[in-house]
Amino acid sequence: MGELLSASSGVPLLHVPYRGGGAPIQAVIGGEVDLLSDTLTVAMPHLQSGRPRALAVTSAEAWPTLPSVPPASATLSGFEVRSWLGLAAPAGAPEAIVQRLNHDTHAALARKDVQQTLGHLGSMAWPGTPAAFKDMVAKEVVRWKDVIARRGIQVEG
Fold first, then answer.
1. Beta bridge partners of 71
2. Most CB contacts within 10 A, which of 31, 53, 141, 144?
3. Coil, strand or helix: which one is 49?
């Protein structure tokens, strides 16, 4: 995401690798690094405390749980990056099982308590069809392969 932001904005960014966990957001809070792109599920508790300050969301529009934070696309036309989570079954899984999983997932995501929990985490559910999910994943693969190729991104160590 950082490379796409750098390419879209023309601002050079230095990638600072972390092993994960809470270290990256703690580095921003502590002033060790200037900028972090993270999921709202990780950042939300920190944002609610006021440290760090959210500059933008990477969805195409303002995010419902952070309505005062503008989308990056307000400054960088067309800039949109969404994190997503999906359920997948092995290739060749019987269609009846795939459809049942999709149906039951929709039912779970429609529950008020599930929606409230997701909202508290800064997340939302967009249930769809298995075909739409497959199409979205295929488009994401093409998009990020292009970013990797254009930016000369290499796997490190």
1. 57
2. 144
3. helix
pLDDT value for 142: 96
Residue type, 60: A
Confidence of residue 22 (pLDDT cuts 50, 70, 90): confident
- d(CA 8, CA 1) in angstroms, rounded, equals 10
Query: Position 27: which residue type?
Result: A
What are the extents of the domains in the chain? 1-83, 85-157
Tell me the pLDDT tens digit for each residue of 47-94.
Answer: 888 889 999 999 999 988 899 999 999 999 989 998 889 999 999 999
**Residue 35: alpha-carbon gap to chain centroid:** 16
Whether CATH 3.40.190.10 fits 1-83: yes
Q: Tell how far CA 151 is from the center of its chain.
A: 20
Q: How confident is the model at residue 121, as a pLDDT? A: 86
Reduced to 3 states (helix: H, G, I; strand: E, B; else coil), residue 63 is strand
CB atoms under 10 Å from CB of 141, counted, come to: 10
**The amino acid at 11:** V
